[in-house]
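Session log. Operator J.P. requested a structure for one protein chain; no other inputs attached. Running the standard single-chain path with token output.
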Amino acid sequence: MNNLITFSDRLSKFLMVVAAAWAFGLTFLIMLNIIDRELFDGVAEIVTASIVIIVFLQAGYAIRSRSMLRADFLVKRFSPQLQKLLLGFGYILGAAFFLMIITGGWEESVLSWVENEFEGEGALRVPAWPARWAVIGGSAIALLNYLVLAYIDVFKPEYLDSEMDSEASEN
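Structure written below.
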């Protein structure tokens, strides 16, 4: 199980870096579009697809580093056993949510690849499959990370000291 946790951490960090680099590059594309609108058409279509990709590439890291929104003001008043139970339930709900995204989007993602689907009605038509597959892949990593968190918090609390978020607090 340690290997799965390490894999999850490394993959989540890598995808977060890719998404951050993508967002950084996108800013230059937007600046070029502002400077000279006729130099490169279709920036709006690229940005629209890129936002979806960036969000889902970073979702796994946000979950694994415990940066997702969490309202535990009421749960903190319960006993430690009930807190652990509710925490595990919340992680399972998160995993189920991303599983529904995967199952609901799988067929559309396959069709977008097979039928070479494009989006956009302007000067540039952008392939739809990269965004669709980023949603599927990002949801799979998010699902994995919710299961990893459930395992650590509920069954192996001794792993909490060696977690991803402890590395971030040291830096």
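Operator note: The chain is about 75% helix and 0% strand.
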